[in-house]
Structures are given as structure tokens and as C-alpha cells.
């Protein structure tokens, strides 16, 4: 087949494929309706109301994905927490191969990992106890992690450690 015919044939095949796969807007089947657009990342107000303590007897337990369930667990340690976060980032990248790492501030990266992305895919549940009121992933001492994207597939994660100050000798860092 000549090259002159190959391009129009490929375009025709692609058009037919799109036509057959395009969702119809049939009102009888709500599963065919397009999903609502994701909400933009909103900054929390200056003063955030602190929720009342959870009553474990009357409140259902938090649903935590298997991947992030041991993040900041009492039986774990900081290097294990960093490896868990690295696994979460690898999982995110595998679902968004063209996008690579989530980017931005800790809150923006956390938002992407908790489902504020184009697929609404949550690697970490939005109600995970490691997420503070400002929407940031925090270490076991309540200090937000520091994320540094070195490339689309490499992300350094740093914890300030027990002294809660970045760039001091007790910091722990994981670079893949």
C-alpha cells in the first residue's frame, strides 16, 4: 500500500473508532453522562474550625488504602514512612505515565495524590490522618513533608525529623 493512501486510511479508521466509542447522551442511562469537572484546589480560610474529636464507638473507621495504611503508623518508623510515600508516588506515576510526578506545593501534591486529578484516582484517601488541616501530608511529628521533584520520575521527599526544622542534622531524606 502506498504512503499516500496510508494516512487517509488511518484518519478514516481513527474517525470511525471515535464515532463508535463516543458516549451517547442517552438520558435513560445516567452512567453514560460525562463526569463533573474536578474542583480547583481551594486555599483554606485563614481560620479553620477544628472538628470535634472523633468518637470511635459511633464513627466508622477511616478507610485507608492498603498502600498508605501504614503511613505514620506507631509500629513503623520514618524511613518506612518515606518508602510508603515513594511507593504512592510510583503508583501515581504508573497511572499518569505522561504526567509523571504530581507537582507544586505539598498541598497541591497531596491534592493530586488524594484524587484531585483528571482521573479522580486517589492513591491516598483524602481523610488519611497524615493530612493536616491545610491539606498537607505530614510526618509523624506533624511537620509537612518537603517534596522536591528532580525530574518527571524522580521525587526527593524530606522529613524535618523530631526537631521539626528542615535542613538540620536530624532530617531524613529519601531520593529514589
Which secondary structure elements does this structure contain, and how are they paired or packed?
Blueprint: H1 3-21, H2 78-95, H3 106-113, E1 146-149, E2 155-159, E3 172-174
Antiparallel strand pairs: 1-2, 2-3
What does this structure look like?
The chain has 176 residues and is of the alpha+beta class. The chain has a domain at 78-174: 2-Layer Sandwich (Glycoprotein, Type 4 Pilin), CATH 3.30.700.10. It is 26% helix and 7% strand. The protein has a three-stranded antiparallel beta sheet with strand order 1-2-3, covered by helices on one side. The model is unreliable at 25-33 and 40-64 (pLDDT under 50).
Form type: elongated
- Total helices: the number is 3
Strand composition percent: 5-15%
Query: The CATH topology of one domain, please?
Result: Glycoprotein, Type 4 Pilin
The rounded Rg comes to 22 Å
Helix amount: 25-40%
Helix/strand structural class: alpha+beta
Largest sheet, if any? Answer: 3 strands, antiparallel
Overall pLDDT confidence: 78
Could you name the CATH class of one domain?
Alpha Beta
CATH superfamily of one domain: Glycoprotein, Type 4 Pilin
Strand order of the largest sheet: 1-2-3
Give the oligomeric state: single chain
Regions with pLDDT < 50 over 5+ consecutive residues?
25-33, 40-64
Q: Care to count the β-strands?
A: 3
Order of helices and strands: HHHEEE
CATH architecture of one domain: 2-Layer Sandwich
Amino acid at each position: 500500500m502506498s504512503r499516500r493512501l496510508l494516512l487517509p486510511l488511518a484518519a478514516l479508521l481513527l474517525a470511525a473508532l471515535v464515532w463508535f466509542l463516543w458516549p451517547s447522551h442517552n438520558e435513560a442511562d445516567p452512567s453514560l453522562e460525562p463526569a463533573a469537572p474536578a474542583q480547583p484546589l481551594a486555599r483554606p480560610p485563614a481560620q479553620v474550625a477544628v472538628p470535634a474529636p472523633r468518637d470511635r464507638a459511633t464513627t466508622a473507621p477511616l478507610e485507608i488504602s492498603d498502600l498508605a495504611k501504614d503511613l505514620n503508623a506507631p509500629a513503623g518508623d520514618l524511613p518506612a514512612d518515606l518508602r510508603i510515600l515513594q511507593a504512592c508516588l510510583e503508583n501515581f506515576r504508573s497511572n499518569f505515565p505522561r504526567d509523571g510526578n504530581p507537582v507544586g506545593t505539598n498541598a497541591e501534591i497531596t491534592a493530586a495524590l488524594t484524587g484531585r486529578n483528571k482521573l479522580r484516582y486517589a492513591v491516598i484517601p483524602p481523610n488519611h490522618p497524615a493530612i493536616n488541616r491545610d491539606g498537607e501530608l505530614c510526618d509523624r511529628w506533624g511537620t509537612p513533608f518537603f517534596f522536591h521533584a528532580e525530574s518527571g520520575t524522580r521525587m526527593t521527599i524530606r522529613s524535618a525529623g523530631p526537631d521539626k526544622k528542615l535542613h538540620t542534622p536530624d532530617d531524613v531524606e529519601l531520593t529514589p
